[in-house]
Every structure is written in C-alpha cells, then in structure tokens.
Amino acid sequence: MDKIPILRMGAFLLVTIQVDLYDRLALNLEADLVQMVNKTSAKGVLIDISAVSIVDSFMGRIIGNIASMSKILDAETVVVGMQPAVAITLIELGLPLKGVHTALDMEKGMKLLKSMIDETEEDADEDQTHDDFIAE
Amino acid sequence: MMTLSLSKDTIQVLKEQDVVFLKNRIKETAVKIKMGLVNQTRLLTAASELVRNMMRYADGGVCIIEVVSSGRVNGVRLTFSDRGPGIPDIQAAMRDGFSTGKSLGLGLPGTKRLVNEFDIKSKVGQGTVVTILKWANG
C-alpha cells in the first residue's frame, strides 16, 4: 500500500505529493494529515502538488476537506506548486477551491504560512513579544 | 463532417489498479496524436470523473479508447460503458450540484465543459454509455 509521507518541520507539516493520486491514497492522506495535525499540534500544513498532473473533482474535494479540517484544528493550509494546466482544468470543471490558500512555490508558501500564523498569534496574546515568531 | 476511427483499444475497468492503467493508456494515446498539455489534462480529468462514476455506481465497466480523425485534425474519443443501474433523470444529472451520491455533483456537467463532444445514454436497469471526444488542438 502506497503512503504519502508527512514531514514535520517546526510548527509546520510538509507534504509533497510525488505520484498521481488515486482515490484511496487521497483519502488516507486526508486521515493521516488530520491525525498528524492533532498529534503534533502543528500550526500550518504545506501541500506541494507540483508533481500532480490531474486534480479532478474528488481530489479537489479532498484538498478542500484537508484545509477545512485543519482549520478547525487551528492549523492553516497552503497548497503550493499547482501546474497551470491543472488550474485551468479545475476552474473549467467548476471547482474554484474556495477557502484553500495557494502559493506559487514552496518558498512563497512558507512565507505565507508564517505570516498567517504571526497574525493569529498576535490576536491570541497581544502582550507577548512576537520577536520569537518573526525570527527565522 | 465525417469522423474516422483510426485505432481502437478496449480496456476493462474493474479494480482501482485498472484505473491507473487506463489513465496511462489514455495519456499515451493523447501524446501520440500530439495533443497539447492543457488539452491532455482536460481529457484525463474528464476521464477520471467518468471512470469514477463507473466504479462507484456500476462496479466497473469498459472503456474504449479511439484515435479519430476528421479531415486534418486528430482527436481522442473515449467511450465508457457499464451495466450499472442507469440514470433515471439525465437532465438532472447534467445539472451542476446534482448528486445522488455524496459528491459535489460536478462530475457530469464539469466533464462536459472539459471536452469538445459529450454524449450520454442511459437506460434504467441496463446501464450507461458516456462518449467524450477531445480534439488535439481545440
């Protein structure tokens, strides 16, 4: 049984999807990822789909699900590296992936995640100096 | 205009592994007729939707991959046929957001938007046949 590895990096979880997803693999990833968010109290999830050439309505729904599930577990999700052809297809299919943050590449995605987490931390406890959050 | 069939390939789809095999064969066919990358993606996404329907509602079926030619342009025609329960109301099934399963209901209408030609025939109790066609550059 194939499995998509989930790597932990500080407060983030990194997932790089290197194969074309089929349904069961995607469902397993959804379950594993939400478990991991809970177990590691991750603040952000970064999903790299640069190697994925097909995202159909089912995969799109899984990506949306992961984002909403992580959100209610207090983690933000950013999807990075979508191929242009996949973006075209998704919109024509009628799946705009609302509520999912995206970035062009890993680096920009990381920056976006950090900025989102900084914001929520500031809201949460304003008396705390946020130097340690900004420190890279 | 006359559409000629140049090659024909029939693939049984019963298990999840067959789906992967089928997608690879469709991709090979699309590459062979020099279909552009975006159109390849559209065709494969459409096929992915239809094969999922076939697996979910009819426990599998058969897909015929054809290379067709109309004058100077080539295209790929896919015919998905199953012996499932059939679709009682095709008009409803073709509407965005309609689903009898637990999906988003984008499968059939979304697929139609991705391809050049789309045809669906279904008889309750006998099965469903969906035919799609994507030209190499169109």
From TrEMBL, chain A:
<dbReference type="InterPro" id="IPR036513">
    <property type="entry name" value="STAS_dom_sf"/>
</dbReference>
<dbReference type="Pfam" id="PF01740">
    <property type="entry name" value="STAS"/>
</dbReference>
<dbReference type="InterPro" id="IPR002645">
    <property type="entry name" value="STAS_dom"/>
</dbReference>
<protein>
    <submittedName>
        <fullName>STAS domain-containing protein</fullName>
    </submittedName>
</protein>
<dbReference type="InterPro" id="IPR051932">
    <property type="entry name" value="Bact_StressResp_Reg"/>
</dbReference>
<feature type="domain" description="STAS">
    <location>
        <begin position="1"/>
        <end position="113"/>
    </location>
</feature>
